[in-house]
Every structure is written in structure tokens, then in C-alpha cells.
Amino acid sequence: MPSQPTSTAATATERSAASEPLSVVAAVLNDRENIGPWLENVCWADRIVVIDHGSEDGSRQLLEQHSSVELIDAPHGEGLIEDIRRRGLSLIEEGWVLVLDFDERVTDELRDEIESLLNSDRSESGFQIPFRHYLLGRWLQHGGWDDHHLRLFRAGQGDYVAGLIHSEAIVSGDVGVLSGQVLHFAHPTIHDFLSRMNRYTTQSAPALARGEVGGLRKRAMLPLSRISWLRASCSMFWVRYIKDRGYRDGMQGFVVAVLLAAYIFIEQAKAWEVRLEQGA
Fold first, then answer.
1. Exposure winner among 3, 55, 93, 220, fewest CB in 10 A?
2. What is the residue extent of each domain of the chain?
3. Given pLDDT bands bounded at 50, 70 and 90, which one contains residue 279?
4. Closest to 144 in 3D by CA, of 246, 214, 216
5. What is the rounded CA–CA span in Å between residue 206 and residue 183?
6. 12-185 domain in CATH 3.30.559.10?
7. DSSP class of residue 154?
8. Given the DSSP bridges, would you call strands 147-154 and 126-135 parallel, antiparallel or unpaired?
């Protein structure tokens, strides 16, 4: 596990007067252990907007102790995390927005790159950022985890599709690519993976049951076929573990590939359960 990025960059008040402001937006739900390191990591931003959607571990109370944080309440269970983020985005009217979850950290290289961007006249409306994912205590270099996410964009020009879980931001205008990384410390334990999988699959099940696109695959619900469900789960394992060489990440790569295959099955089963409850 790498050391946390340092916080030696210029603060918002030390930057050039011509610099555009940077706002960081995040949704929080029972992330108390991450709050301190996360706040230290983003202390150089001009504005920090956090939307709490039902924390019960003291996260809200801890965030209230920091005057630099604009804390917003969202009813527990209201919408997906993408919908929660949109509450924060609606408040930002100038400069740039960085969407950064509490289990994510900006590297020193990315911070310097963003600082330079704030003082430039770049024409892009948004930027893809490379992610380095750590799961079950290991950096997964294979298995489809070498990816980019659109997390930095101009205020008012980026948004998420309402009701679509795991969706990427949509930006009006050109999109560039940065070289600095975000470190994503996702699912440190299997318990954490299963807890989040249970929450996310429950959230996506109603949309899938209605025939809408959604879920981990960002596709419509599969036909009510045992073979289709098993094939989709096996396909997920084969792609992640064999095609994308997840086997090179040791036992973590194997366990994660199996868990993702189970995710697909559970997601379909919950959508089927919703249809049963609705008498469909």
C-alpha cells in the first residue's frame, strides 16, 4: 500500500489571483475513517462541498467540525451516488469541479497538473483522469482495472445521468486526458465489497426490472434464463481473470474476479425478485 500523497502544494489563497477556482464535490456515507486523510488531501481546493446521505457512524458530526467544508444533507436512501453528487454540482457556478470520493486520493503529480490547469487558458471542458485501484490491500495492475474516469470539468458543463448507477459524467465540449493519477483505495476487505455490492445491486434492481439500462454492465436486464445468467457471470470472470490477465495479480485478482461474477448474478436475481413482487 503506498503512502498517502503529501499536501505541500500552494493553498487556494496562495495561488495567482488570475487562477480559476477549484471546487471538490463528494458524497459521504459512513466514511469516518477516511475523512481526515481525505480532507488533508484536498485542502488546497478553494471550495469543498460534501453531501451526506445517511451516515450513522459519526461522519456528519466529524465533518461539521471543519469550517472549510460545506455540508449538505440528502435523505437517506434517496437516489444513487450519482444523483447525490448532482446536488453538489448544482451549487458550483464558476471555475472547475473535481469529483473525488472519500476512498480516493489525488497524487502529488495530479495536484500539480490541476494547479497548472487552473492558471492556463486550456480550451477543454473536462478531463479524464487515470485511476490506480487498490482492492483487498493490493494494487490491481491487471484484470481491467487500468482505467480512466471523467472527474474534472468546468462548472456547469459536467453532469451525471439521473438514476444510472456507475455512470460516467457527461461533459459539454472537448475532453482531454491528464497524466497524474487518482489512487482509489476501494474495498479493503471482502466484507466491504459485499456490503457495497448489496447496496448497489438493491439500488439498480428496480431500474433493471423496468427494462431500463443500468447496473454494473450498463445494459438492460438479461432474459429470465438460467443459462443467460450463468453465461453472463462466467463471461465476467473470464474477461477479468483470463482475457484481462487478472491472474497476474495473484490471489487478490482471482478473488475479485469471482466477486464480480457473483455481482452480475445477484444483480439479475434482485431485478427478477422486484418483478415477482410487482406481479410481473
1. 3
2. 12-185, 190-277
3. confident
4. 246
5. 32
6. no
7. E
8. antiparallel
